[in-house]
Specification:
The complex is a heterodimer of chains A (about 200) and B (about 450).
Chain A (H helix, E strand, L loop, with lengths): L6 E8 L6 H4 L19 H4 L21 E4 L11 H9 L3 E4 L4 H8 L4 E4 L2 H13 L4 E5 L4 E4 L4 E3 L4 H9 L3 H6 L2 H10 L9
Parallel strand pairs in A: 1-2, 2-3, 3-4
Antiparallel strand pairs in A: 1-5, 5-6, 6-7
Chain B lengths: L5 H7 L2 E4 L4 E5 L2 E4 L5 H9 L10 E3 L17 H17 L2 E2 L10 H7 L8 E4 L13 E4 L2 H10 L1 E5 L2 E8 L8 H12 L7 E6 L1 H4 L3 H9 L8 E3 L4 H7 L8 H11 L12 E6 L6 E3 L7 E3 L12 H10 L14 E4 L7 H11 L9 E4 L4 H9 L2 H7 L3 E2 L20 E4 L14 E4 L2 H10 L10
Parallel strand pairs in B: 3-4, 3-6, 4-5, 6-7, 9-10, 9-12, 10-11, 15-16, 15-18, 16-17, 18-19
Antiparallel strand pairs in B: 1-2, 2-8, 13-14
Helix pairs in contact in B: 2-5, 6-8, 12-14, 12-15
The chains are: A alpha/beta (about 200), B alpha/beta (about 450).
The structure holds iron/sulfur cluster (SF4).
Chain lengths: ~200, ~450
């Protein structure tokens, strides 16, 4: 996983609620056996007509908007556990997703791939949407160390992140590195746990 | 000190160690894998030069991407074939038990786990699939994970987790005739919304839940994720023990007795405290359907689409997509597809209910009806009971097992703009094929829609 770098970036607004992972990456594009290339089909059915032509008023096809920060309505990433959703967002170039609420599995998948989900208040989210509507070139600054997200020329908010996950993002560590360092404890646990449920295999 | 919940008891028994903050190392007893979310995890393992830590605690089956006809022939779609072959090759190389296409145990992961006795009370179980919540019906902690986590479990049999908050949903009383487990869960989600359970693990309790069969309990736990919850769990009881006993991987003889004694200690203590509680009356639940593009947008089949939220952009966008209007009734709405299947409702009791309802009737001419069993065992059982013939003469075709039109990864898709009454769990835009319009319902409501060619209230027909 790559280290997360603090950033100042323009934003891509997607003021829709309950964006599910089937929209982020439809199932028919999950047939790959590697992690690469999913960005091409990010928001496929909102972005392209069935003949492959871009839908001009979808935000990813609108050159008015750009940047590494996606700002979306509440309950972003609900539905399927497909990590392909996080891969697609990352592959497309996003490094931060801002919403007033995230689905659990998506949040975890994002963090495991160096994509920072920032949960802000509904009021701040709406302020961002208004600011981008007024001026599409407005920028947002994300400071992971201080856990602060600031909207250029306007307010800022502190966001929460699990201290362990923060450390992983800042250093580019995967959970797997940590877990592998725990092998002895895991083996000790296996010896003492009630194993009724392990029978039969 | 307050007593422990069922969830606490199972969780606490699996904590290996504590990391900084609230993060814990959680031991995973059983890991199910399928072809779509495992290849990159195997790939990651190889890149790091690692082996599987506990291959015997894993079972694999292809389900998401498989055709539901002619499974004995090579898969036509090249990408799908590659994915299924990659699963086979990885299982061979890493030593994982695989129930491949054509194997008598193949099927949707969440159908075969319980069927084979792989799912047992008191376990922790994961799979790279959000509907792993299904297995919670047995009093196991079961939840879906992403591919990076699949790799972590492969490498260490553990996950880093923060303990979720607890919620209890109690349903007391008796269900009306024609109201099923699917209606209970659609009702709950319509009350709590598609995000109302986020951050929680839900215990379902109450007299109405206790009366349900294991298959019905699975239908309920299956859809926990549809309100955002990590999972659902139901206390193990005699119904659970009877179901588990005698299955392929269940403990046998004295071991079973010992296990049963342990499992009997798991239900929530009477003084256990939950972070959130909801209580509903079973009598008030009617046959349910959805009208929108998330499972929280559900209502009684005889109701009208709500007008209260009609001004919000997301609600408008959703109804536009569905070609419906706020305030409109759904009864009598013409439909052209019916899908009976998915890990929510493709077990033998579902097929029996459908066959019983359609027996001696004929589906409407303009309706295409797909019945896809959840597993090879369900398919064989259905045939042994003659359900295939009943279905056939009513104009329904019993196919071979897989996820099928639940997510439209194979060729079983609903065309653009068509309405499909589906027993699956998600009505997201395009879920059943680009432009498809999904109406979620119970197996009998779906069967009735196929017969009448429109949405009907089953209470008037049985
Ligand atoms: S049947 Fe549908 S919900 Fe269930 S595992 Fe398959 S795709 Fe997922």
């Amino acid at each position: 996983m790559e280290k997360f770098e603090n950033m100042t970036s323009r934003v891509v607004p997607l003021p829709i609620e309950d964006v599910d992972t089937d929209q982020i990456i439809p199932a028919r594009f999950l047939k790959a056996v590697t992690r690469e290339g999913f960005g091409e089909n990010l928001f496929r059915d909102w972005r392209y007509l069935s003949n492959g032509n871009p839908i001009p008023d979808f935000v990813l096809n609108d050159s008015t908007y750009a940047g590494k920060i996606l700002v979306a309505g509440r309950n972003f990433g609900c539905g399927s556990s497909r990590e392909h959703a996080a891969w697609a967002l990352y592959d497309f170039g996003f490094r931060v997703v801002v919403s007033s609420f995230f689905a659990d599995i998506f949040r975890g998948n994002a963090l495991n791939n160096g994509l920072l989900p920032i949960q802000v208040s509904e009021a701040f989210l709406q302020e961002i949407f208004r600011a981008v509507e007024d001026d599409p070139s407005v920028e947002i600054e994300v400071d992971l160390e201080a856990q602060i997200i600031s909207l250029q020329g306007a307010g800022q908010e502190r966001f929460e992140i699990d201290p362990y996950k923060k450390m992983c993002l800042q250093n580019g560590y995967d959970d797997i590195d940590y877990l592998l360092s725990q092998k002895e404890k895991i083996e000790a646990f296996e010896k003492k746990a009630p194993r009724y449920f392990m029978m039969g295999l | 000190m307050a007593g422990k919940t069922l969830f606490d008891k199972v969780w606490d028994a699996h904590v290996v160690s504590q990391v900084d903050g609230g993060t814990q190392v959680l031991y995973i007893d059983r890991h199910l894998i399928h072809e779509v979310t495992s290849p990159q995890a195997f790939g990651g393992l190889e890149k790091r030069g690692l082996q599987l830590f506990r291959p015997k605690q894993m079972v694999a089956t292809p389900d998401h991407n498989v055709p539901t006809i002619n499974q004995h022939l090579p898969i036509e779609d090249e990408l799908s074939r590659t994915q299924v072959e990659t699963l086979e090759a990885n299982c061979e190389k890493f030593g994982v038990e695989l129930y491949g296409l054509g194997h008598p145990f193949q099927g949707i992961v969440h159908v075969i786990g319980p069927e084979l006795g792989l799912t047992q009370p008191g376990m922790t179980m994961v799979c790279g699939d959000s509907h792993t919540s299904t297995h919670g019906a047995f009093g196991a902690i079961a939840f879906g994970i992403g591919t990076s986590q699949v790799e972590q479990v492969m490498a260490t049999q553990c996950l880093l987790q923060n303990k979720p908050k607890s919620m209890r949903i109690t349903i007391d009383g008796a269900l009306q005739q024609g109201v099923t487990a699917k209606d209970i869960i659609l009702y709950i989600i319509s009350k709590l919304t598609a995000s109302g359970g986020t951050g929680y693990f839900v215990e379902y309790a109450g007299s109405a839940i206790r009366k349900l069969s294991m298959e019905e309990r699975m239908t309920i736990c299956n859809m926990s994720i549809e309100m955002g919850a990590r999972g659902g769990i139901i206390a193990p009881d005699e119904t659970t023990f009877q179901y588990v006993e005698g299955r392929k991987f269940s403990p046998k003889g004295k071991d079973f007795e010992a296990a049963k004694a342990y499992w009997s200690s798991l239900p929530s203590d009477p003084d256990a405290v939950f972070d959130k509680e909801y209580t509903y009356k079973a009598e008030e639940i009617q046959p349910m359907i959805t009208y929108g593009t998330n499972p929280g947008m559900g209502m009684a089949v005889s109701g009208n689409i709500p007008t209260s939220e009609a001004n919000t952009d997301s609600f408008k966008k959703s109804l536009d997509y569905m070609g419906l209007e706020a305030g409109q009734a759904m009864l009598g709405k013409e439909i052209s597809y019916v899908f009976i299947g998915s890990c929510t409702n493709s077990r033998i009791e579902d097929l029996r209910a459908v066959a019983e309802f359609v027996s001696g009737k004929k589906k409407a001419d303009h309706v295409t009806a797909l019945v896809v069993p959840g597993s090879k065992q369900v398919e064989s059982q259905a045939k042994a009971e003659g359900l295939d013939r009943i279905l056939e003469s009513a104009g329904f075709h019993l196919r071979e097992p897989g996820c099928s039109a639940c997510l439209g990864m194979n060729e079983d898709k609903v065309p653009k703009g068509e309405y499909c009454v589906s027993t699956s769990n998600r009505n997201f835009e395009g879920r059943q094929g680009p432009g498809s319009r999904t109406i979620l319902a119970s197996p009998i409501t779906a069967a009735a829609a196929a017969i009448h060619g429109k949405i009907v209230d089953v209470r008037e027909l049985i």
